[in-house]
Amino acid sequence: MADQVYITKLAKFLPNEPVSNDGMENILGRIDGQPSKIRNLVLKSNGIRTRYYAIDDQGRFTHTNAELTANAIRSLLDSSMRISDVELLCCGTSIPDQILPSHASMVQGCLDAPPFEIISTAGACCSGIHALKYGMLSIAGGNSFNAVCAASELVSPLLLSRHYENELAGLRRLKRRPIIAFEKDFLRWMLSDGAGAVLLESRPNPPDSLSLRIDSIDTCSFAGEVATCMYAGSSRNGGGKLVSWKNHSPEEWLENSTFAIKQDVKLLDKHIVKLGTEKLAETLRKRGVNPRDIAFLLPHISSEHFRKPLDREMKDQGIQIPQERWFTNLSTVGNIGSASIYLMMEELFYSGRLDRGMKILALVPESSRFSYAFVLMTVC
Which of 2, 35, 140, 196: CA 20 to 30 A from 23? Predict the structure, then answer.
């Protein structure tokens, strides 16, 4: 069994060229041929300036979700750690390319990898940390000496305007205004594509290189107490209960944009910061960590809209970490769901700003039914 587990390498993959705010509708298209009425409002609030799509300027898909992950993993590997040396592959994503086979098995296929253990973790933004935790526990438990953990998102195909055409046509037939609901249009200007990967080992890098020792990973779900906030592949009935795509006809899939990603913004604002901060305060107390000792906080905030509320709530909970110690790259890479925290970790790790002994706290909220993940690491 390993006494400690270390992140020894990190890598990312962002498809194609960065897309500016002004270029988004050129790629995603205009619903009903009209510019979005909420786009500028959402972009002003979320603070994202550029993001990446696995779609080229001709509207052609350039990568699958599995290929995004495989490319990040290829950047992770070299002569000192080849694909044939990997013992465990852990992959998290919100929406894989297919229902079956599993996402991790498709990534293994893209890599032309030899037989090894794999696992796919489901969920939304926390699925990447679930993959990391599985890899950590496997090494700590003596089941493996190394693990590649990855997170990726390919959401842009679901954001294309053409997927809403049948719903608009249905609204016209009913003589209603052909306007897509805010909960669907909102996320078109929030989400983007990409992947990140890390190598876990039972030993740190040699003394001339830095590593990140994983001190703890804590996760928690509030699904038993709070209703669903973000969802896809389902719709709400009159009572607010989710109804699966399996209970709808193929015609209804199109007419209701069933597979579009949707979010209840009011529910998000009410719970996402408060629940997560209360749980973070409890976790820090349990782990005996003083917030003053945190050198860098990596908060996966889906929007700059949440920066001030998070700072204020942390202060109220007695766990404030000054914003000059926050590190995020949301404005330049966008919100890539489960992969966002991997890209933050990768950028910080290679930034030249880390010194041995520094403590890092990663905070990942998941709005789908309010789950949270907290990762404590030490630079060594």
Answer: 196
